[in-house]
Design goal:
Layout (H helix, E strand, L loop, with lengths): L1 H10 L1 H21 L5 E5 L7 E8 H5 L1 H66 L5 H36 L3 H4 L18 H11 L1 H15 L1 H10 L2 E9 L3 E10 L7 H66 L5 H32 L22 H4 L9 H9 L1
Antiparallel strand pairs: 1-2, 2-3, 3-4
Helix pairs in contact: 1-4, 2-4, 4-5, 4-8, 4-11, 4-13, 5-11, 7-10, 8-10, 9-10, 10-11, 10-13
Length: about 425
């Protein structure tokens, strides 16, 4: 997952476009810290030797030049905060796309193996039926199970292509480069240690990039509030000087022009006040949303982690033991085909439930990564690399026991 995020940062056109806001903000900052540009006008009549030079500049820009520079710096800081939040959101989106595709590939592998086992069992049941060892209804039940596993495999197969295309698009890869993409085929097991939810929520609220972006917007609004109130009252204030030359610079004059609004700036000041209140409410809502997102994602991740480990350590081993016992009873003719098929179905369902819990865990972790680095609040956290979890330790759910009907054919044939 970390490699996928790094790749997206390098290749995604969407991310590159989003980050260009920094270049735009930097250009605005340069404009704000430089003095206002004067306007020069040179005129000469068609007759005579009189040459006129008019120089004018915005008086408000000159007077409030330091305030404009401060507002420009606040705007740059706001752009940086928004860019950091964009990167965090993009990283989470990449992780989620990676998780969904890997889960689809793993589910397909699960149902492919279940389909292969179902087809092998169908062949064995067909031989047993032709030999007169089982009833027609038992043979049909085995055929039905094999057909169900084929349908499940087809459904899972239909998820792989769309999730891969989504991942390729979010990585920003061309089709040619996407063909060289090498992806893991299974999700790593959840972390053994529980999340320190209390510390995580506290740190996430302190360091939330989404909240930081809303706070930066608030500071940007506050930095320009005084200047905008004055502009609402005075609108345009222009200082000018005029020089005339007739052989020598002999005449000069100075002027000061003001544009006073009819409403005396009431509408402009009201707009500034409303925008300040709007920014404050957005900041307050951003804090509430972040807290809710962090809490819900942390709770989902922890519950999914516990559930996945329960399936791995309890449900899967128990389903395997039950399946082995049912096979022995079936071979001893103590139970019928229906109980055997139900046990095989339960074995597949246990694998599916484990995979769904693992997927929910990693998806919730990705949502948490929008606000805080989760690995800082757990011990022995996984990095998302397949090599970190050998299959023998992960207790893979898609490894089914040898198909019992192969032995049934030998025992009863």
């Amino acid at each position: 997952m970390d490699e996928a995020v790094a790749l997206a940062f390098l290749t995604s056109p969407r991310l590159q476009a989003e980050l260009e806001v920094l270049g735009i903000a930097r250009a605005d900052l340069i404009s704000s810290v430089l003095p206002t540009a004067p306007f020069l006008e040179i005129s000469r009549p068609t007759s005579g030797n009189i040459l006129s030079l008019d120089v004018s500049a915005s008086l408000l820009d000159l007077i409030f030049w330091p305030q404009r520079a401060q507002a420009g710096k606040a705007a740059m800081e706001a752009a940086q905060a928004r860019a950091a939040a964009v990167l965090a959101d993009a990283a989470a989106d990449v992780r989620i796309a990676f998780i969904e595709h890997t889960a689809a590939v793993q589910a397909l592998d699960l149902y492919r193996q279940a389909e292969a086992a179902g087809q092998a069992a169908q062949l064995a049941a067909e031989a047993m039926f032709e030999a007169g060892n089982i009833a027609r209804v038992d043979y049909d039940r085995q055929r039905q199970f094999a057909a169900q596993m084929t349908a499940e495999r087809m459904r899972a197969e239909g998820q792989v292509g769309p999730t891969r295309e989504r991942l390729i698009a979010i990585l920003g890869l061309t089709q040619e480069r996407a063909e060289k993409l090498q992806l893991v085929s299974r999700l790593p097991a959840p972390a053994e240690a529980a999340l320190d939810t209390g510390r995580l929520i506290g740190a996430a609220m302190d360091d939330s990039l989404q909240v930081a972006a809303a706070e930066a917007d608030m500071r940007q609004m506050a930095a320009g509030r005084g200047l905008r109130n004055i502009e609402a009252l005075m609108r345009d204030a222009e200082f000018g000087a005029e020089f005339e030359r007739d052989g020598s610079w002999s005449d000069e004059s100075y002027s000061l022009g003001l544009a006073l609004p009819v409403d005396l700036g009431v509408a402009g000041r009201q707009r500034v006040a409303s925008e300040m209140r709007q920014a404050f409410q957005r900041l307050h809502q951003a804090r509430l949303d972040s807290l809710a997102d962090i809490r819900s994602s942390a709770q989902t991740a922890e519950s999914a982690r516990a559930l996945a480990l329960f399936h791995r350590d309890v449900s899967l081993p128990v389903s395997a033991e039950v399946f082995d016992g049912v096979v022995r009873d079936f071979n001893a003719m103590q139970i019928g085909m229906f109980e055997l098929l139900q046990s095989r179905r339960d074995r597949v369902d246990a694998g599916r439930d484990y995979l769904e819990a693992v997927t929910d865990y990693w998806r919730a972790r990705a949502e948490l990564e929008r606000h805080v680095r989760v690995s800082d609040f757990e011990s022995g956290a996984d990095t998302g690399n397949e090599d970190d979890h050998p299959q023998s330790e992960e207790k893979p759910v898609e490894h089914s026991p040898p198909d019992p009907n192969q032995h049934q054919g030998h025992d009863h044939g």
